[in-house]
């Protein structure tokens, strides 16, 4: 009987077709989103590469220009030294001086000529022509700046030479007489064409504009490519503001332009690179086209797969029904087998716990019978031997107590066992004496088949210390230790601070029952037994390897069900 308030469920094939449709739409959306994200990432990458390339170019060009200006200044200093303590008239007539300076100038391809002007601005000597033509530079800024200024190099604005008739700019220095009075200037003219030729040879993307400018007035002395007639200044308001804020270098994004600049160290000159980002956008679009073609191919394939999926919907429905029937039958059989296995495992665990419980009860009964037998025996060696036998039985019984109380019957928390054993010895064997047991027990799981003999060894060693270590009254400490040497080895130690072993005593050949038990059980375990004279006292150490049990445990875990 159906509920009329609920609509009929869509058949599985209809749900599968709807899922295919939604997957196709989601795939197209994901594809478009991925292409969009990729496009943005590629654009950011292109812009970052353009900025990094411009920054690297500015740095290299600044270093190049700094070396050229340093070399030009050395030539100016060399020309200034030629004038020292010499008369201007004599220098003006000296072909030797003219030839020497000319040979110095031709060594530098970026130098046009060397110029020497006296205090009145009159040209006295130039490597451009001999004798020097009659001209004056009193109205030039590179002359007036030195009349009262210090002797530091000065870079002029771009000028047209009165002698050469060519555009140029100068690097000049002040000449002083012995009394530090103004005597004239020494200067060289540099070739802007040299810089333009050098910039033209650089293989730089996006057709950059390269500028060499004076830092003070921001006027350009070299621009490559050369500006078109009527072009505006390259330092617009945004760039000028940025250069005032950071005069030593920086990058300015101004709409479709990237402007990167850097000032030269120790020179009032800077280098700038201006990129047209529209060219970078064009490069980005060219890079994006292959991805767009791949995306379109992917979209076409996705639509084709969706159509194929619709055709396969009914076949999937039939296969799904058959598979569901098989899975249902298989699941039912597996659940039944699993329930049966769990029941057998639970029954086995219960039986093991019951066995250990009964063994513990039987051993406790034997221990009690031995205690009663010992009480009825006369005082002396017989009663003592019976009491020791009872303690040995209790030591084994305690192991089975831990086994039936724990969840894992294959291993025993041996540190708990040792603590319980020592407490029992304090109650039974150390009453009325000044005994003191010191426990230093690290947690350690010991396999059941090794815990029983190792527990008996611990019992014998402690009782051996009780019987022989302290013949006199007083404080009688006995230290019991359990430590993990590594992941596979544990070490049991029993130590006292008593009289030690008698002189000439060989514990390996001792005929006492306790030492024979310790030897036999150590051999059974394959354990190492050491006895050390600690002066005062004696220490017994038993080293047992657990690897055999751990290998069995690993094999049980990795074995297939």
TrEMBL record:
Histidine kinase/HSP90-like ATPase domain ranges (all copies): 449-548
EC nos: 2.7.13.3
Gene3D superfamilies, per the entry: Histidine kinase-like ATPase, C-terminal domain (3.30.565.10), PAS domain (3.30.450.20)
Major enzyme class: transferase
Organism domain of life: Bacteria
Catalytic activity: ATP + protein L-histidine = ADP + protein N-phospho-L-histidine
UniProt keyword list: ATP-binding, Kinase, Membrane, Nucleotide-binding, Phosphoprotein, Transferase, Transmembrane, Transmembrane helix
Pfam families for the chain: HATPase_c_2 (PF13581), HisKA_2 (PF07568)
Keyword Transmembrane helix: yes
Name this protein carries in UniProt: histidine kinase
Organism: Azospirillum oleiclasticum
Species lineage: Bacteria, Pseudomonadati, Pseudomonadota, Alphaproteobacteria, Rhodospirillales
């Amino acid at each position: 009987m159906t509920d009329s308030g609920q609509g009929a469920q869509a058949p599985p094939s209809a749900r599968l077709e709807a899922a295919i449709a939604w997957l196709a739409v989601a795939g197209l959306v994901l594809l478009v989103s991925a292409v969009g994200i990729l496009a943005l990432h590629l654009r950011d990458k292109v812009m970052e590469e353009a900025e990094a390339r411009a920054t690297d170019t500015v740095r290299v060009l600044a270093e190049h220009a700094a070396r050229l200006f340093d070399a030009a200044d050395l030539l100016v200093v060399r020309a200034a030294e030629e004038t020292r303590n010499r008369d201007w008239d004599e220098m003006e007539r000296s072909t030797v001086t003219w030839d020497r300076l000319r040979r110095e100038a031709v060594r530098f391809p970026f130098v046009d000529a060397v110029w020497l002007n006296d205090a009145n601005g009159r040209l006295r000597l130039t490597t451009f022509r001999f004798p020097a033509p009659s001209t004056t530079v009193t109205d030039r800024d590179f002359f007036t700046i030195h009349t009262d200024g210090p002797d530091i190099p000065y870079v002029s604005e771009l000028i047209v030479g009165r002698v050469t008739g060519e555009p140029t700019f100068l690097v000049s220095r002040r000449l002083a007489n012995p009394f530090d009075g103004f005597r004239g200037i020494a200067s060289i003219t540099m070739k802007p064409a040299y810089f333009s030729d050098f910039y033209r040879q650089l293989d730089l993307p996006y057709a950059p504009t390269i500028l060499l400018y004076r830092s003070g007035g921001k006027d350009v002395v070299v621009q490559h490519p050369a500006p078109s007639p009527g072009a505006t200044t390259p330092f617009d308001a945004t760039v000028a503001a940025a250069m005032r804020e950071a005069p030593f270098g920086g990058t300015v994004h101004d709409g479709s332009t990237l402007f990167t600049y850097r000032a030269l160290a120790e020179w009032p000159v800077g280098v700038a690179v201006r990129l047209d980002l529209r060219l970078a956008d064009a490069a980005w679009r060219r890079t994006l086209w292959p991805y767009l073609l791949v995306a379109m191919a992917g979209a076409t394939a996705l639509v084709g797969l969706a159509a194929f999926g619709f055709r396969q919907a009914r076949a999937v429905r039939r296969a799904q029904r058959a598979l569901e029937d098989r899975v249902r039958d298989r699941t039912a059989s597996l659940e039944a087998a699993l329930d049966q296995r769990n029941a057998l495992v639970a029954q086995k665990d219960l039986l093991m716990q019951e066995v250990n419980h009964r063994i513990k009860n039987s051993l406790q009964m034997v221990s009690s019978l031995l205690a009663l037998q010992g009480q009825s025996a006369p005082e002396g060696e017989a009663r003592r031997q019976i009491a020791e036998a009872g303690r040995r039985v209790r030591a084994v019984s305690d192991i089975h107590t831990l086994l039936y109380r724990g969840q894992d019957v294959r291993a025993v928390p041996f540190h708990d066992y040792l603590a319980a054993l020592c407490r029992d010895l304090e109650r039974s064997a150390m009453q009325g004496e000044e005994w003191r047991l010191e426990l230093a027990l690290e947690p350690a799981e010991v396999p059941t088949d090794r815990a029983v003999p190792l527990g008996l060894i611990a019992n014998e060693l402690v009782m051996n210390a009780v019987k022989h270590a302290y013949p006199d009254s007083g404080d009688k400490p006995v230290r019991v230790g359990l430590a993990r040497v590594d992941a596979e080895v544990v070490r049991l130690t029993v130590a006292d601070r008593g009289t030690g072993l008698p002189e000439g005593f060989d514990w390996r050949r001792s005929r006492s029952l306790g030492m024979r038990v310790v030897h036999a059980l150590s051999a059974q375990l394959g354990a190492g037994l050491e006895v050390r004279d600690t002066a005062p006292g004696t220490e017994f150490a038993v080293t047992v390897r657990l690897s055999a049990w751990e290998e069995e445990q690993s094999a049980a875990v990795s074995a297939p069900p």
